[in-house]
Amino acid sequence: MGAIAAGIAMAGAAIGGGVGDGIVISKMLEGMARQPELSGQLRTNMFIGVGLVEAMPIIAFVVALMVMNK
User: Fold this and answer.
1) FRET pair for 48, CA 20 to 30 Å: which of 6, 19, 23, 41?
2) What's the predicted TM-score (pTM) here?
């Protein structure tokens, strides 16, 4: 039962992380297309946003391991 719960948690986190990354990157590209002079600042903010979005699957992985070993 724990393995199924861990798999579902990881699947949800992976889907959420992928969608979140796609949204962050697409908005950054839209901003660069509108204001190319801000590309450096937008790129920096995009990397910070992607890092924050990717924290969720990592946390879900740790929780999934804890659920499996319980």
Assistant:
1) 6
2) 0.79
